Automatic annotation (TrEMBL):
This is Bacterial surface antigen (D15) domain-containing protein. Transmembrane segments: none annotated. It comes from the Bacteria. Residues 204-381 form the Bacterial surface antigen (D15) domain. Its main location: membrane. It comes from Rhodohalobacter mucosus. Gene3D superfamilies: membrane protein fhac: a member of the omp85/tpsb transporter family.
Amino acid sequence: MIEQSSIEKPAQRVRRIVSITLAVALISGCPLLAQDSVFVHENAYQDKILFLPALGSTPETGFMFGAVVVPQFKLSGSGPETRSSSLFFSGIYTTKNQVLLSLLSDIILPDEKWVFTGNYFTNYFPNSYWGIGPATGDNDEMNILFTQVHIKQTALKKVRRGLFTGPFIRWSKVFNLSFQSIDGRDIPAPNDPGAEGSVSTGVGWMIRRDLRDSNMTPTRNHFVEFSSLVNPSLFGSTNPYTSFLFDARKYIQIGRNERSVLAFQGLFRSAAGNPSFLDMSELGGAVIGRGYYGGRYRDLNAAQIQSELRKKVMGRLGVTVFGALGEVWHRYEDIKLSSVKWSAGAGIRFNVNKDDPTNIRIDYGIGRGTSGLYIQLGEAF
């Protein structure tokens, strides 16, 4: 799922960290990094717990080092109609002096009657910031340093096959916020919402249509999600706002033996009120707009589309090419097609779990005067 705002991206990046050690072990046939659980379900799904040293990379973090524990499992009574659940515990340090501790969870009850998704993290996250709007220049770049605590929990009830709806809560606090020039000198905070720190406390509702065959490596069907989030001052939000998110994805298998997948995604987010700059809609990152730094452009509204062709080459190995268009804006009358941002790129895939396909992806994306390398776990969308 695409998160509601850029403030949630650090945990999203951590979730997709790749373990080089795991890849080496699988190539050599070494079984030591994956421990099978004692439960084997009737549908022959075998639970696994992966204990992994971790290495990953994005433009926002540089290289990431740490450890992750990833149980992949099905609850008792789950059959082939129920996708696997997972927990993702991680502790990460990056070459940009960022520290990230997180727990992300996808718990799916038998027959998918309920789906519980959690996103809990705390981090110290120095980052880059260019200001607000679609026309910020490279010379506007500054460094921001902040500490963050974040909680988000979603509870979705199955209405019928593939259709879920339910509430979610979100609480986030950003503090110890400071700004520096790119050469490391302290500078005054810009006159942007939330530049002195912020607290966001919100409740929302989500409707999701999800017929994908996998969360991590989907190959068929579609995913559509609409959500709204209200962060009123009544709940303690320092920058009250309301946001809406629409995310639609389609996966088409092509060719013989289903070795190729054509994937599409459209993403729209709109915020009204006075959100913190970290809660605004944004472009860039490891999911959509690959090649642009995450949050390179941000404003109240953002619309993006992307497509990707994924092809299995041999065994566990695959390749992909992708492209995207996107833009941010403050008012609808400000939209200019001439300023739409494009990105494109290619990548390599390596499946680390034959029983429940999960790809290591190495992507290189380019945009207008920018580029980025991404080494992560799971498909971008």
